[in-house]
Write a structure and sequence with these properties.
By secondary structure, the chain is of the alpha+beta class. It has twelve helices and twelve strands. The strands form two sheets. It has a seven-stranded mixed beta sheet with strand order 7-9-6-10-8-11-12, sandwiched between helices. The longest helix is centred in the N-terminal third of the chain and has 19 residues. The two termini are 19 Å apart.
């Protein structure tokens, strides 16, 4: 019986591509030496039925297409220099809807100070937006250059978008986060010279921790440091959802997950939350509020996986 891509999943397919290309770095972006600095480049494709909630406006579709790419630049500490937009759409899409998408793209480019410099259009059965973001950085942050004893931190609350995807009500912090996430580009540039490693949280905290884990190192996360409000727990319970599952395994927060030494933490001038520490346990663990310790499962949002 032949193996299908759904049997492997997105991350395993990416690992195959990296293993068969000597020029690809296994990080958030490509890093290419360019003059006296590094060109940082990344691309991300969004498909309407997979990445855009039903209640997302066309404007926010365009805005998100820029955000997901700029977020990768942020994780490297790069300064944005250009954005390329490729968009495919049904031939019966209303022109006003197309204009709203483009308006969202342009507004995001203005917000992140990244000029739209080119792109392409094509026809498809649904809206597909593929962006390519370019940046520069002398000393880019990598995913796995942390040390034992480093603290693990995030640039903001996580799990908000995960809960927002489950809610029908409009105009609350959870839904707003799910419909219009913001990339932490300013924070990434300020972390560049202080953090020991960084990545952005797209597929869930657990998935990202396993993505950056290297042999003989582990992570201990503390539930009491995750900033989970009583309201968050109550809404999750009312919906019949496990609040820790939302917090750890869904993603779409686009906050930066970074490691940093205790000395450098005192030099940070951005908002952050310390949520754990790097250990030598070789496992990814969570200390619950009641003091019990449990392993964090390696799961998160992933394309191609059979449901």
């Amino acid at each position: 019986m032949s193996i299908k891509v759904s049997d492997l999943g997105e991350k395993e397919l990416i690992r195959y591509i990296i293993a068969n290309s000597k020029d690809i770095t296994p990080d958030d972006t490509a890093v290419t030496q360019f003059d006296s600095t590094n060109l940082i480049s990344t691309c991300d494709m969004l498909i309407q039925s997979r990445h855009f909630p039903a209640n997302m406006s066309f404007f926010n579709m365009g805005f998100k297409a820029v955000t997901v790419n700029v977020s990768d630049l942020a994780a490297m500490g790069a300064k944005p220099i250009g954005f390329l937009l490729a968009i495919a759409m049904p031939k019966d899409l209303e022109v006003d809807s197309f204009k709203e998408i483009v308006k969202g793209v342009l507004e995001a480019c203005y917000f992140y100070s990244i000029p739209l410099i080119g792109g392409d259009t094509n026809e498809a059965s649904e809206i597909i937006i593929s962006g390519t973001a370019l940046g520069v950085c002398d000393n880019p942050l990598m995913k796995d250059t942390y040390n034992k004893g480093d603290l693990i931190a995030v640039t903001g609350n996580i799990g908000l978008a995960a809960l927002g995807f489950e809610l029908d009500t409009l105009d609350n912090v959870y839904v707003n986060k799910s419909l219009k996430p913001i990339a932490r580009i300013r924070e990434g540039q300020m972390l560049k010279d202080l953090a020991s490693s960084a990545t952005d949280i797209t597929d869930g905290l657990a998935s990202e921790l396993y993505e950056i884990k290297k042999d003989n190192f582990g992570f201990m996360i503390y539930e009491e440091l995750l900033g989970i409000s009583d309201e968050y727990k109550e809404i999750s319970d009312r919906l019949g959802l496990d609040y820790l599952d939302l917090m750890l395994h869904v993603g779409e927060d686009f906050e930066l997950l970074f490691t940093i030494s205790r000395d450098n933490l005192e030099k940070l001038s951005i908002d952050y939350m310390v949520i754990g520490e790097v250990t030598d346990s070789d496992v990814v663990e969570l200390t619950l509020e009641n003091g019990f310790v449990e392993r964090i499962k390696n799961k998160g949002y992933e394309h191609y996986v059979s449901e």
